[in-house]
Specification:
The chain is mainly alpha-helical. The protein has one domain. It has 16 helices and 2 strands. The chain has helices spanning 7-38, 43-46, 49-85, 107-110, 114-118, 132-154, 173-176, 180-204, 211-227, 250-273, 292-304, 306-326, 335-348, 350-356, 366-390, 392-401; strands spanning 209-210, 289-290. Helix 8 packs antiparallel against helix 9 and helix 11 runs parallel beside helix 13. The two termini are 42 Å apart. The model is unreliable at 277-286 and 390-402 (pLDDT under 50).
Length: 402
């Protein structure tokens, strides 16, 4: 398989960045240090040091951004495998291979984004096309990682409620002076993003959510706060202060437990109106599968608190209705996709939402919370009614498989 005509551009950019890294971060410091120590540095050159230092700073920021983007695309590549294999009862152990010829992919072919572009979206062995979905998914999660990383790391957590915004110069501080509390918070939030992204990928193929994916999310959502207690920000009560960073405290257990239960209850409300998942009985769980509504909203509540579960659930209902009305394919109107998008918005605007007083949060009144619950219930009923009207064939198909 020949390389694409446009792949040369990516090769050129990578090589250019490599040359700049070598010259600015290795060659220049060695040569300038030797000239200064030996007294042979021309005076005219010292006047332009600030330009070189500025170039080094921006290069470090570029490297930090590329690293975070690449990390997100790597997770997307892995989550693609999880979303394809686990619902079909297959193990995620073993290397990636072509679904057509079953040939094991080499490291070059398996490199996120670049591997797909290098082979023009075809298997290097059999030549059959590889779905563009893999490339799109890797780009999406790469940019999501970059966006969340920039807001919470490079900008000092300007989106995080009840916290003092850290004064950070940029992504280069991840190397020079890492803020471990922000790194822990960002890692925790990106873990939730990856879990919700996996649920959205599974539902995009019209598959059911396995218990194992949900339980894995529960394990991560519970253990990480026990190791890094500062990742839980909003207390379960109406306090406007950051949750105390004490391991195994009553407040910590209450915050995690109430958030999990609240999110699950919201999922039950959705399932109460949605007859596609449980056509004959009201139970949510079916053998080895779990409702996407319960899975996604309970994970949001566990990771971000019951207040966030309610606000994200409310926004997700609206997004899901819009997707149902204006997208031609029913799979894109899945609640998992809406919850994923709403969680991204919530994380970006979290501080502003909690300060508004008109959004369900720790600073909102009880009346606002009750109105949010009522609105969520109405939108869940409306979503279920619209889906029964718009996609009756899909409904019957899912009922047959259940």
């Amino acid at each position: 398989m020949t390389k694409t005509n446009h792949f040369w551009f990516f090769q050129f950019v990578i090589r250019l960045i490599g040359i700049l890294v070598f010259l600015l971060l290795f060659v220049y410091p060695i040569i300038s240090g030797w000239l200064i120590s030996s007294g042979k540095m021309p005076l005219g050159v010292t006047r332009h040091f600030w330009m070189i230092e500025l170039a080094q700073t921006y290069l470090l920021r570029l490297l930090g951004a590329l690293w975070i983007f690449f990390l997100g695309s790597c997770f997307a590549s892995f989550l693609n495998v999880v979303a394809w294999r686990v619902p079909r009862g297959r193990t995620i152990n073993g290397s990636s291979h072509c679904p057509d010829c079953d040939q094991r992919l080499s490291f070059r072919d398996n490199t996120p984004i670049l591997g797909w572009l290098r082979n023009n979206g075809h298997c290097s062995n059999c030549g059959l096309p590889i779905p563009t979905r893999y490339l799109i998914v890797e780009f999406i999660l790469g940019f999501v990682f970059l966006g969340i990383g920039t807001i919470e790391l490079a900008l000092g957590g300007i989106n995080l409620p009840f916290r003092t915004i850290e004064k950070i110069a940029g992504l280069e501080q991840l190397i020079a002076a890492p803020q471990w509390d922000l790194i822990q918070l960002t890692s925790y939030h990106l873990t939730l993003i990856c879990l919700l992204f996996t649920l959205a990928l599974i539902k995009s193929e019209n598959l059911k959510v396995p218990y194992s994916v949900w339980i894995t999310g529960l394990i991560f959502g519970t253990l990480i706060p026990l190791v890094w207690p500062n990742v839980s920000l909003i207390n379960w009560n109406w306090s406007t202060e950051v949750l105390s960073a004490d391991r195994f405290s009553i407040d910590q257990y209450a915050t995690l437990g109430i958030g999990l239960v609240a999110g699950a209850i919201l999922g039950f409300i959705v399932n109460g109106f949605d007859r596609r998942f449980v056509p004959e009985h009201p139970y949510v769980f079916q053998k080895t599968f779990i409702s996407e509504a319960v899975a996604s909203l309970s994970l949001v509540g566990l990771f971000l608190g019951w207040q966030s579960a309610l606000s994200i659930g409310l926004a997700a209902m609206g997004v899901s209705i819009i997707l149902t009305l204006f997208t031609p394919r029913a799979i894109w109107s899945s609640l998992s996709t809406a919850v994923f998008a709403s969680t991204l918005f919530h994380l970006v605007a979290w501080r502003q939402l909690t300060q508004s007083g008109v959004w369900p949060s720790a600073q909102a009144s009880v009346l606002v919370t009750l109105l949010a619950i009522l609105s969520f219930t109405i939108l869940a009923w409306l979503k279920a009614k619209l889906e029964r009207i718009e996609i009756p064939e899909s409904t019957n198909e899912i009922q047959t498989e259940a």
